[in-house]
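Appendix B.2, paired examples.
Example (i):
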Amino acid sequence: LNCNKRCSHCHRTDFPEQGSVLSHGDLVTAIDQFAGLYQGSEHQGKIFFTGGEPTIWQDEQKEMLDVLIECSQRGIRPLLPTNASRFNDPDECDAFFRRYVSEADLPLTIWMTADGWHGNVSRKHKTIPDLDTMLDVRSKIPDARKKIILNIQSTIATMGYEWLLDIILSYVAQGVGFKVN
């Protein structure tokens, strides 16, 4: 997929022309085939969308939100890694979250990248502004906390990231999940 950032650590920066962008039809076919693997099973399938910034994917009139909802409606739990730049606008975030909550059957797990490389952490204010927007919007939508699961994924290196850990721990205390790369 394409991406709206050029992070120095990302393999997409090295090979921006490689890969392919699947059509909506291709994605639905793959989702249906994957869902078929779990039919009659006690296990639930999960799909982790990646390959750039998934939230900017579009195919004619369809966008990633449509694909996430379709996954959920077919019994496959969608996982969305994102740099969260699409969610920094409260109105856009609200529309995305409200539509997902009203149309989806299963929770959406969002894995937001937050670290110095992505440039989305305010060291001065000790916050992650896009995550603050998502938390605020989610708090205003009934049942959104059950349907929109927020997590931080961060890359911690030996380059003095103690300041970042303090910020992340403040979000973990608010119920946001966390994993480190």
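Example (ii):
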Amino acid sequence: MTLAQILGTFATGPITPDTRMTRFVHCSLYDWATVGLAGRDEPVARAARAMALETAGTKNSATVFGSGRASPAAAALANGAASHALDYDDTHFGYLGHPSVAVVPAALALAEAKAATGADFIEALTVGLETACRVGAWMGRPHYEAGFHQTGTSGAFGATAAAGRILGLNADQMAQAFSLTATRAAGLKSQFGTMGKPLHAGFAAEVGVTTALLAQMGATSAPDALEGPQGFGPTHSGAAEISALHNIGQEWLFSGVSYKFHACCHGLHSMLEALRSIDLTDIPASAIDTVSINTHPRWLNVCNQPAPETGLQAKFSYRLTAAMVLGGLDTAALDVYSAETCARGDICALRDRVTVIPDDTLSDSEAQVCVTAGETVRSARHDILTTNDPDAIKLRLQDKSETLLGRDLSAALWEDICYIDKPDGPAVLAARIGTTPPNG
């Protein structure tokens, strides 16, 4: 079997996810809707929404975050961009990508357009999120380190799986959709710190909808478009870790998902948690002499902007976000990532005392920090994957949602997630994200 056929068989066949997998699917859906609603007024979200609304129609249309309806493909693009606009969404370290922002918009757009049931919608999310993780693991680290953004590349295959499941594709049609996706999936890390990065999520979601619809209409593609000599893997620096496909549908990689509780690149979070764990109440920020951050080398070309000047750039800076924590700023708040923060004299002074050190003895979910002030030396180490309990995660996500959306909207949204398995669950969720007006 080709890789497309293996994935097609999984994405269309019966699935039996364990309770842990199902709970994390619900957590991620809640987190996706939260950050999408919070990010609907970001410039990239406004631009994508305006583009999507140009395709508005009355038949088989789907809701866009904030207001209006559009074709399913355009709605998926707009909603993917909006939910990744704040860079505050879930991450999977198995392939260094953001799965939900690519997969959920594709699934929800078609679920709404086709009046799919809540049970069908959750099944589509389950196979889509798992497919994104499996393709990402198959491509491996060389793909990411070559400069590709897995949210846009592997995420597109997850979106295709979810979209095809909603459409009821058979295994052959799904394989054709994956092969078509292989010639459209894209995303470059050179876009980090710009509007291009959140658009990767939107593009991936749109690709999933489009290729699934094309396959439904009879479009075909090269059967070995993923692993063939000039296929997606070989041409995109893939490692071709075929073991990543073993036990697909029996073991669930997505259950290793990680959530953001700081409004910046996930590569910074282990460092931020480590710094926050150090008691510095007896040391004023002005007395700090040096700060060292040990991190895995692969993060240095992702989130190591030494002297950011904009809020977007700040989200990808070890030195500045470390200075923000040490300077008493709340890195969970959206408004602290700004040009004003980047230019603050006290924050810049702290920033310039920070040194980032590559350390390949650490995993890419770990960081070690050391703060010196005269003769005082304090250090800490943190791995953000050490806490992956669904109950604890749910509580932190509810706190995060309340901070971003307010208590009433956050609570209403959680009720929608609890209701999502009902026949009209997707429609209720779509109504929530569409009838909540933008702030401006």
